[in-house]
Amino acid sequence: MTMGIVFLEELEILLLTGKVKKKLLAMVRQFGVPTLFLTISAAEVQCITLLILLSEVVDKKKLTELEAENLPYDIKTRLIQSDPFICATYFGIKLK
Questions:
Q1: Which of 88, 91, 46, 43 has its CA nearest to residue 69?
Q2: Containing domain of residue 76, as a range?
């Protein structure tokens, strides 16, 4: 619990006052020390470069950026499902 109090004291110095502070303290008492959860999405359907690459590998067809952007959703998902290794590798490289 000490770590949570230190965290709250630092937040107080930075930006918390009044009502927000009371609400946050109540949440810590009820739920415990806050933890951080981070959700990262690859968003493959929106990644034009990945779609161009997948089109070349899967369909042997070179697309322009405009063509890749305007692909129907079902074609985008088919390309992504056709080669999950490339998608995972591409995401790993982008994440690093």
A1: 46
A2: 44-95
